[in-house]
Specification:
Length: 579
């Protein structure tokens, strides 16, 4: 009878099958390890000749043959001498076996068909359980992930319970690759990174800078409209700030080494909070002035291991869309509602319609792990809950997942491919007001501690734009598009009219470009489409005479005989409404 196996077991078993096929077709290959990973599995091999895409095909065919043969997975135990004999030509396996011995573990083996591998298991019952298997790519990998070791070839693959699931996954993979922001970011000249400068340090090119500027303008306008005060603060600060805040003790691995200025150590800032606190503290605030909301697009630097730095989404320097709210405990609920409304409004503008919301609260059984008074926590957690309920938002409660200094709301956005990304975070903080002695004067004339809320809506400009490239597949809506209109001419006779239109568009703050080259229209259109320009204008003799244009959009639709004044009116409306 068919037993139900976990997808992990299925995938790991497929790795055995891959190793079997490799040993049969390329007997000189030496075996590394073959675990399952997210979305699939891999197996490492030492072999002088690189595996080609044709090799992967051959290997897949061979694997299929073994699936048909329905070979049973059997657990076998050997004596040390027997095991060493079986693995005599597999140096990496012998090394693993030595490690097991050092740890006092007895090695176990699994056999299916003619293939034996050192493994702990578990596996599927029979190779016939592997109904949908696919090899996806080859990459280089060092033995045990150590650069000083030999470089091996890692063959990746995946397996699913059904063929349909596999097909769906491969389609998504293909779509994700097409949208990959590291690829599109380069093609669309949005950003670059340079080993000569350093890993994870983003250079925003003119196209990327326009996108960022538009987002920042939108962000600033929406914040100022909602009562935030915009501030700018330094990039470095006395190390004492981080000692007071506690970050120097608990967060040091994410911060860069101090630099000496005169005789004092300074740090490049990993966060903006202390600076906003100092602005707040320059005078005594009455309860009547609260809430005070300071907003800043603050560039911070945090250490990330070079191995995890990736494109725009995992970087070492980034600009947070940061804000800190100082309010009374009674004001907290309304402040959270305000942040939720702002967050959802902004995300919806970018076409994010689905969210996963998590409310992180204390572990009620281990209250001593958390800073601050019981009553403060209860009030804050209740305020966050009420705010979410007021906005009728579904959320999951993460008990025990709150940071030691306060409860929080984390919102993950779901993009066009159904992937989750870290979105807005709203963090209540009882710690910093205490550490920096932040106060306000209450109605009773006495000093009280305000509640401090840290919040970001977009997270960081870098990650947000990186995700946005993939979300839009590079086709930015008109208001964000680096070039909004490209004007193409059919013959030189139309150049004058094209230049006039170009001037009119610039006068209306529309980002336009001219293509007057004597190339064919199909070629010019194709190039503009590759640049993902949302509106392509074509001008020929007919258009010059009638004082109209032909408008082609990225979906391939063409509208002929559009009056220039109408076109400008329409485009300005579309930009303004951020359609
Ligand atoms: Zn195994
Ligand atoms: Zn903060």
């Amino acid at each position: 009878m068919a037993e139900k196996h976990s997808i992990e077991t299925l995938r790991h078993s497929a790795a055995h099958l891959l190793a079997q096929a490799v040993k049969e077709i390329f007997p000189d290959a030496k075996l590394g390890i073959g675990p399952n990973v997210e979305n699939g599995f891999y197996y490492d091999f030492e072999r002088d000749t690189p595996f080609t895409p044709e090799d992967l095909k051959k290997l897949e065919d061979r694997m299929r043959r073994h699936i048909k043969a329905a070979e049973k997975f059997e657990k076998i135990e050997y004596s040390e001498a027997e095991a060493k004999k079986i693995l005599k030509d597999e140096p990496y396996k012998l090394e693993l076996m030595d490690d097991l011995k050092k740890e006092g573990e007895k090695p176990t083996f699994y056999k299916h068909g003619n293939f034996i591998d050192l493994c702990r298991g578990p596996h599927v019952n029979s190779t016939a359980d592997l109904k949908a298997v696919k090899l996806t790519k080859v990459a280089a990998a060092y033995w045990r992930g150590d650069q000083n070791n030999k470089q091996l070839q890692r063959i990746y693959g995946t397996a699913f319970l059904t063929k349909e699931e596999l097909e769906l996954y491969l389609k998504r993979l293909e779509e994700a690759e097409k949208r990959d922001h590291t690829k599109l970011g380069k093609e669309l000249e949005i950003y670059s990174t340079h080993p000569e400068v350093g890993a994870g340090l983003i250079h925003w090119h003119p196209n990327g800078s326009i996108i960022r500027m538009e987002i920042e303008n939108f962000w600033k306008t929406e914040h100022i409209r909602r009562g935030y005060k915009y501030v700018y603060t330094p990039h470095i600060g006395n190390i004492g700030l981080w000692k007071t805040s506690g970050h120097w003790d608990f967060y040091r691995e994410s911060m860069y080494s101090p630099m000496k200025i005169d005789t004092v150590d300074y740090l490049v800032k990993p966060m903006n909070c202390p600076f906003h606190i100092f602005i707040y503290k320059t005078k005594l605030h009455s309860y009547r002035e609260l809430p005070i909301r300071y907003a800043e697009l603050g560039t911070v630097y945090r250490y990330e291991k070079s191995g995890v730095v990736h494109g725009m989404v995992r970087v070492r320097g980034f600009t947070q869309d940061d804000a800190h709210i100082f309010c009374t405990p009674e004001q907290l609920k309304d402040e959270i509602i305000g942040v939720l409304e702002l967050s959802l409004f902004m995300l919806q503008t970018f076409g994010y319609k689905e969210y996963v919301i998590e409310l992180s609260v204390r572990d009620p059984k281990n209250k001593e792990k958390y800073l601050g008074e019981d009553s403060g926590w209860n009030k804050a957690e209740a305020a966050l809950k009420e705010a979410l309920n007021t906005k009728k938002l579904k959320y999951r409660i993460g008990e025990g997942e709150a940071k030691f200094y306060g409860p929080s709301i984390d919102i993950k956005t779901i993009d066009a491919l159904g992937r989750e990304w870290q979105g807005p975070t709203i963090q209540v903080d009882f710690n910093l007001p205490e550490k920096f002695d932040v106060t306000y004067e209450g109605q009773d004339g006495k000093k009280h501690r305000p509640v401090m809320v840290h919040r970001t809506v977009l997270g960081s400009m870098e990650r947000f734009v990186g995700c946005l490239i993939e979300h839009y597949a590079g086709k930015f809506p008109l208001w964000l598009a680096p070039t909004q209109v490209k004007i193409l001419t059919i013959t030189d006779r139309c150049n004058k009219a094209a230049e006039e239109l170009y001037g009119t568009l610039l006068d209306n703050n529309i980002r336009a470009e001219l293509d007057l080259r004597t190339e064919t229209i199909p070629k010019k259109v194709r190039e503009a489409q590759l640049e993902k320009v949302p509106k392509i204008i074509i001008i020929g003799d007919k258009e010059v005479e009638a004082k109209t244009v032909a408008v082609r959009t990225l979906d391939g639709k063409v509208k002929f005989g559009v009056k220039i004044s109408e076109f400008i009116e329409e485009i300005l409306k579309e930009i303004k409404e951020k359609q």
